[in-house]
Amino acid sequence: MARLLGASANDPGMPSGAEPAGELSIDLAPGDYTVRSACAGVFGVELTIVEGEGAPLTVPYTCDSVLERFLRHAGGPVAIRVTPPTGKPAAAGVTVQPNADPRASELEDLQEWFQQQLQPELPGQSAGSANSNTAISSGSLSVTPGKYKLHFVCDGPSSAQLSVASWAGAEVLAPVRVRCNGEVFETSVTLATEGADLRMESGGGTEARYAFRLVPSL
Questions:
Q1: Phi and psi dihedrals of 107, rounded to 5?
Q2: 3-state class of 75 per DSSP?
Q3: Residue 93: strand pairing partners
């Protein structure tokens, strides 16, 4: 475990004879971190992360590779433990280091932005998100035929072009230019067949992020 994780066998979080097989409790400053864990002796284990008084996050993984998990932490105590199957002798180790991959932090920034948009969630909604610096299509909205309200938010460029087609290829919303100023663009659409495919383009190679949903019209 020490070799796999690049740590000393005597470091906190490294294998011990007690249950769970690997355990680490530490106070961390606010920031982005990478949790790494490895195990041996069994097929797989469960890694559990508890931040302060928050709910535990449990991630199962197999012992044929090293687990790497991104962690954005608000600051304070973190407890990480690895639990093998009951009664099975196993070794496991855990390390926490500042995140060195800017792409992981950027992805977390996007996820946080997506989660803040189009709130609160509405009954029957089908929602999605995307980001790109070129034209992109998202056919993720699996909805039945009917009338809907389309809600759309973009961020990054000054505006973006939006159009909607059915999965069958029929035009549902002709291309329209939407301002990316933090306001929700809303329009009515009618789907004659199942599914909706949104096409979005920022223009000029500008990185843009999009959040959208279809809500059944009353």
A1: -65, -40
A2: coil
A3: 38
Residues 33 and 137: their CA atoms lie apart, in Å, by 32
Name the amino acid, one letter, at 9.
A
Q: Which amino acid, residue 105?
A: S
Q: Give the span between the Cα atoms of 184 and 207, in whole angstroms.
A: 19
pLDDT on residue 139: 78
CA 33 to chain centre: 15
109 close to 206: Cβ distance less than 8 angstroms: no
Residue with tokens 């961020």: 155
Q: Which residue has the tokens 């069958």?
A: 168
Instruction: Please tell me the predicted confidence (pLDDT) of residue 88.
Output: 75
At 208, list the tokens: 């843009």
Peptide bond into 12 cis (omega under 30): no
- Up-side HSE of residue 89: CA atoms within 13 Å toward CB? 1
Q: Element (H or E) spanning 50, and its range?
A: strand 44-51
Size of the chain in residues: 218
Find out whether 129 and 87 touch, Cβ atoms under 8 Å.
no
Cis before 145? omega within 30: no
Neighbouring-strand partners of residue 99:
none
d(CA 105, CA 198) in angstroms, rounded, equals: 27
Q: What is the pLDDT of residues 93-122, one digit of tens each?
A: 999 999 999 988 888 888 888 888 999 999
Residue 111 sits at φ, ψ, to 5 deg, of: -60, -40
